[in-house]
Every structure is written in structure tokens, then in C-alpha cells.
């Protein structure tokens, strides 16, 4: 079986590698020639533990080849980005462009699957596009949607072990997609229709965003009430059926902070809680920045000098080096813009250097700072001894004090 993956990003490339590892002949396609060149040299262009060795293996065996143009295959997977236009309107133009690129290659019996997170109805739209341009293929090819749910940093394990939800435009399409994935997925393959599968992905991430918003709202309430929110959540979670998540400095990344808008933009009148959760998680980053600025002003009034302040963490979540859409980055930038010539030490232990921020070692910053702001719960921060002579703003529960 020959399979064509359209998109060699954080999901497309690892999935192409795992499929190739399981004996499937793979052509990986990307519009970025650098990505294609690096992949064919067996060099990873993304950071993912254990993936480098697998890539070298499947490239040297000829099982995986990368190209900027698709080749005739038996199955085609759309794993391209689905970003936003300005006003949180989902943009499926990459999915459509990738689909148009392979439509001329389609033949009877082929399988076409979208994996990209997409607004409900996208798979039906692409099926219509295919059959409008290739009417002779109507009911002769199989079309399905299958979202991924892998956690960056644990992709190899989760691609094989996670359950998958697979929804075809009809039963036989679902069967065909399940037959493909069962070649390398050990998790259970759950069958449904394509709209439900599209909504399932959005639901998973929106539910997490709402849960995080609840924790963030609690942190604002506790700050005003003079209650330790970390202790409160730990105690509430002792209840056998309560599982409150952790407050943070906001919600980052290009999944949880993005996917809920796929629902609110299509169902604006119905999705009240989902929309409010998004507002709360965005507001939390603003609230943290305000808190830092007020603390700095208070310090200056009391000590008649500007404080040295350590902004601890820039990544969008603990123990990773990905700064994309990171609230910590937003807060640090806002603080730097607002206070002239205060000494601001920026810390990100998972990144060696940054083209905007001058980075300071986390231990050095902690020692030098009058005010220490914990933005991301990186494990290394937890070894820093609590120093009650410092003013500590702990937005992510390092000390849970
Ligand atoms: N966060 C909190 N408090 C928490 C948990 C997370 O503030 O208790 C924040 C994190 O700091 C981060 C953001 O939320 O800024 C998202 O973190 P995440 O742990 O949800 O990680 P992601 O976005 O890398 O992965 C999510 C996962 N989805 C779910 O857990 C439902 C992953 O399984 C998905 O595959 C991924 O989104 C995706 O690609 O959609």
C-alpha cells in the first residue's frame, strides 16, 4: 500500500514515520522545500523525543520519501494547519489546497482522510469538491475524518496507543479508514460519522479549556478572598468525583487556545460557556501582567528604587521549549513595555537563546531578583529554595504557598 501524507509538521511527519515504520510505503509532501530537504536527509525539523532515530531508519530503508509534490498513491492524508483569519474565523484553505493538489491523482478504491482539526462539515465540503471535479469517482472512493490527540513530547507512544475516533462519509468509508489505522494503532478504533468525529476533536479541547478556565476563575476569587488557591483545589479534589485542574498564567499553544473558536464561530448563540471560558483564559494573562506591574510600583514606593524582577518561564506549558502562543511571553513583553529601565531578568531554561529576549540562567535570576514571577511550572524551578525575603508571584503553583 502506498500512502501520501500532505503536511509534514508536528503531526504529519511523526504519523508518516510511524506508518513507514510499520511497512507502509510513504510519500510525505510539504510546501516548504527546507522541510522536504531535511526529511530526505533523515534530519528532523521538529523537536520530538525518539523521532530522529525512527526518521533515519525509514528514510535509509526507502520506506519514507519526502517531496514538494504528491505522487499517485492508494491513500491520501490531509495533515496541514487550520489557522485563523483575523476574527477567529477558521481558515480551511490549506486543507482545500492540499485536497485540490491530489484530486487529479485519485482513482477508484482510494482512501482520502482529513486529520487536521477542522470546523464541523469540512469533510463533507471536501467530498463535494472531489466529486464535483471528479464525478466518475462518486461512491467509488472512501472519505473519512480522523482527528489526532497526541501530546507534544509523547507523540510516538500516543500515536500508537491512543484510541482513535474515525468517521466516514458512509459506513464503507469508515471501514476502509479503520482498516488503514489498524495497521499501526494499538488503541481502540471507535467508529462514527465524519461530523461527529470533527466535533469530537473540538469537544475534547473545548472541555479542557472550560476546565482550565474554572481553575483560573478560582485563582482570581482566592486572590481577592485571601485564600491559597492551590490548597483549596487540592482539598476539593479529595472528593471522589471532583477533578479541578491547575490555574496558570493563561492558556497557550495552538490547540486548546484555538480549537474552541471552531465551535463558537459556527454556533455563536449556543456556545456561551465555551466562549466565556476563552475570555477568562485570555483575561488571566492580562490579570497576571497587571499584578506584576502593580507589585513593581508598590516596591518602588516602599524601597525608593526600582526592583530587579525575574520573569520565570516563557514556554506555553511546563518542561517544553515551544513558545508559540505562550501567555508567559505575552506577560513578559507587556511588563517590559510598561516599566522603563527596571531590571527585568527573563528566564527560559528549555531554550538556549532567543532573538528577542536576553535570557538569564534561572538560578542567577532567582538570586538577583527582588520580585520573582513564576509564569510556567518548569520542573527545575521547584528546586529553588523558598526565600521569604523575596516578593514571589507564583501564578503556576511552584511552591503552592
Ligand atoms: N494548562 C493550565 N492548567 C492545566 C492544564 C493546562 O493552565 O491544568 C495550560 C497549559 O499550561 C497550556 C495549555 O493549558 O498553556 C494547554 O496545555 P495542554 O496540557 O492541554 O497541552 P496541549 O495543548 O499541548 O495538548 C492538548 C491535548 N488535549 C487534551 O488534553 C484534551 C492533546 O491531547 C491534544 O492532542 C492537543 O491539545 C492538540 O493537538 O489538540
Automatic annotation (TrEMBL):
Record-linked SUPFAM superfamilies: 6-phosphogluconate dehydrogenase C-terminal domain-like, NAD(P)-binding Rossmann-fold domains, UDP-glucose/GDP-mannose dehydrogenase C-terminal domain
TM annotation in the entry: none
A molecular-function term among this protein's GO annotations: oxidoreductase activity, acting on the CH-OH group of donors, NAD or NADP as acceptor
InterPro entries: 6-PGluconate_DH-like_C_sf, NAD(P)-bd_dom_sf, UDP-Glc/GDP-Man, UDP-Glc/GDP-Man_DH_C, UDP-Glc/GDP-Man_DH_C_sf, UDP-Glc/GDP-Man_DH_dimer, UDP-Glc/GDP-Man_DH_N, UDP_ManNAc/GlcNAc_DH
Family: Belongs to the UDP-glucose/GDP-mannose dehydrogenase family.
Domain of life: Bacteria
Name of the protein: UDP-N-acetyl-D-mannosaminuronic acid dehydrogenase
Biological process annotations from GO: polysaccharide biosynthetic process
Gene3D superfamilies: NAD(P)-binding Rossmann-like Domain
Amino acid at each position: 500500500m502506498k500512502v501520501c501524507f500532505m503536511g509534514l509538521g508536528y503531526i504529519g511527519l511523526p504519523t508518516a514515520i510511524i506508518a513507514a515504520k510499520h511497512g507502509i510505503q510513504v510519500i510525505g509532501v510539504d510546501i516548504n522545500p527546507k522541510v522536504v530537504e531535511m526529511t530526505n536527509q533523515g534530519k528532523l525539523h521538529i523537536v520530538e523525543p525518539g523521532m530522529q532515530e525512527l526518521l533515519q531508519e525509514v528514510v535509509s530503508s526507502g520506506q519514507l520519501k519526502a517531496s514538494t509534490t504528491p505522487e499517485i498513491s492508494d491513500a491520501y492524508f490531509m495533515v496541514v494547519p487550520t489557522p485563523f483569519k483575523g476574527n477567529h474565523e477558521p481558515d480551511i484553505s490549506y486543507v482545500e489546497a492540499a485536497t485540490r493538489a491530489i484530486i487529479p491523482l485519485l482513482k477508484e478504491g482510494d482512501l482520502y482522510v482529513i486529520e487536521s482539526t477542522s470546523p464541523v462539515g469540512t469533510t463533507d465540503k471536501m467530498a463535494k469538491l472531489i466529486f464535483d471535479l471528479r464525478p466518475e469517482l462518486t461512491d467509488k472512493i472512501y472519505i473519512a475524518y480522523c482527528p489526532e490527540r497526541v501530546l507534544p513530547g509523547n507523540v510516538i507512544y500516543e500515536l500508537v496507543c491512543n484510541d482513535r475516533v474515525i468517521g466516514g462519509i458512509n459506513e464503507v468509508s469508515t471501514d476502509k479508514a479503520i482498516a488503514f489505522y489498524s495497521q499501526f494503532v494499538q488503541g481502540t478504533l471507535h467508529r462514527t460519522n465524519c461530523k461527529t468525529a470533527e466535533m469530537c476533536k473540538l469537544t475534547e479541547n473545548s472541555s479542557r479549556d472550560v476546565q482550565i478556565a474554572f481553575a483560573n476563575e478560582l485563582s482570581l476569587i482566592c486572590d481577592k478572598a485571601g485564600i491559597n488557591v492551590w490548597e483549596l483545589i487540592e482539598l476539593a479534589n479529595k472528593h471522589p468525583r471532583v477533578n479541578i485542574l491547575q490555574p496558570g498564567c493563561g492558556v497557550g499553544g495552538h490547540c486548546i487556545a484555538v480549537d474552541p473558536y471552531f465551535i463558537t464561530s459556527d454556533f455563536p448563540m449556543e456556545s456561551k460557556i465555551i466562549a466565556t471560558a476563552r475570555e477568562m483564559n485570555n483575561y488571566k494573562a492580562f490579570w497576571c501582567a497587571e499584578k506584576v506591574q502593580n507589585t513593581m510600583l508598590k516596591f518602588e514606593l516602599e524601597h525608593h528604587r526600582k526592583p530587579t524582577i525575574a520573569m520565570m518561564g516563557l514556554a506555553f506549558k511546563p518542561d517544553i521549549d515551544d513558545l508559540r502562543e505562550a501567555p508567559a511571553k505575552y506577560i513578559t513583553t507587556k511588563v517590559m513595555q510598561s516599566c522603563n529601565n527596571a531590571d527585568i531578568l527573563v528566564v527560559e531554561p528549555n531554550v538556549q537563546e532567543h532573538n528577542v529576549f536576553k535570557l538569564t540562567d534561572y538560578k542567577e535570576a532567582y538570586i538577583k531578583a527582588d520580585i520573582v514571577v513564576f509564569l510556567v511550572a518548569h520542573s527545575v524551578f521547584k528546586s529553588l529554595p523558598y526565600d521569604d525575603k523575596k516578593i514571589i508571584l507564583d501564578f503556576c503553583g511552584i511552591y503552592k504557598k
